Amino acid sequence: MAHIMGFGGYTPERIVTNDDWAQLVDTTDEWITQRTGIKRRRVAADDESTMTMAVAAAESVLEDSGLVPDDIDEIILATDTPEMMTPDTSALVQHQLGCRNIPTYDLAGSGCAGFVQAVDVARSRIAVDPKKVLVIGVELISRMISPKDRNTAVLFGDAAGAVIMGPEPARAEVLNVVSGTDGGNAEILTLAAGGTRNPFNEVTLANGDYNRLVMDGRKVFVEAVRRMSEASVEVLRRIGKSVSDVALVIPHQANLRIIEAVRKRMGLDEDKFFVNIQEYGNTGSATVPLAMWEAVNNDRIQKGDLVVLTAFGAGFHWAAAAVQF
Ligand SMILES: CC(C)(COP(=O)(O)OP(=O)(O)OC[C@H]1O[C@@H](n2cnc3c(N)ncnc32)[C@H](O)[C@@H]1OP(=O)(O)O)[C@@H](O)C(=O)NCCC(=O)NCCS
Fold this sequence. Notes:
The protein has helices at 18-24, 29-36, 50-65, 89-97, 114-128, 150-153, 202-207, 217-238, 256-266, 277-280, 287-297; strands at 2-10, 14-17, 40-43, 74-79, 104-108, 133-139, 159-166, 172-181, 189-190, 214-215, 248-251, 306-313, 317-324. It is an alpha+beta fold. The protein folds into two domains: 2-170, Thiolase/Chalcone synthase (Peroxisomal Thiolase, Chain A, domain 1), CATH 3.40.47; 175-324, Peroxisomal Thiolase, Chain A, domain 1, CATH 3.40.47.10.
């Protein structure tokens, strides 16, 4: 039995609009809005980092849960944009937050599915050992990909979101999680630089490879729609429910057209899908916890609601969780 005790999030103050991007690369507000639904995104300040954003989201969820850092028994942090190659960001967060010397680890590189996968890992950790697990999704993508590449740069934003999970009944229960991976599609969405295949050096710097996000957008699009909708239906089937029982779906926010296609495949009305992509763009692993935090704060979720979280990302990885409020 894994329960969610509270919700938290953090977004940097700086807002970058589509018109701002149009000053920098060959794009327009019209193209970005029509193709993606994004209107603006947040970008971290120079004195912010993946760790500081994760800590801000952690402080937010601690306050929301009525807990202090001493209460946390484990940290799982999902990110594709870590503070450093090593050590992992979760270790830095543990110290900065003032936690005990608890175990922490990053769930790294699973793209935008990272947070929902981390919820699944936390669920199994709690089943083995009844503890309180801080689960964070954080991304500082703006600093990792080329600002000159209009194909990718305009899609993303920086943010962090978090929940605290524990064994005792609380505000919501994670009933089940379905997740999967298709490494056969790994090359379709990559940021290779900095790894052993493509280490940072003069060559990658000269080639501009050090921040090149390679993406076949159309293939990602098609697979994202299929996997997120299928995983959502499957997680509902596992708990003996159907789409008609769902109060709200919180999908990964990569493209409004992807979200719409998932919604139509599931046969649900618009008001059953939470959308905030227009404000933040794609914030990777932070997208789902940030959206869930907003949905709770904006009274889009009531006690008794069955909520589905669904996400898809590089790997390809995907996951869907059924959450009973
Ligand atoms: C990336 C994405 C928005 C592109 O939308 P699309 O409708 O598939 O666009 P296309 O691939 O058909 O490209 C259309 C044209 O727009 C151009 N284009 C790309 N980015 C542009 C931009 N910011 N401004 C203007 N034109 C742009 C392309 O160069 C292409 O030009 P061409 O036809 O002359 O080659 C869309 O495919 C998508 O969102 N895919 C999923 C991406 C994703 O989810 N990534 C994160 C993983 S979780």
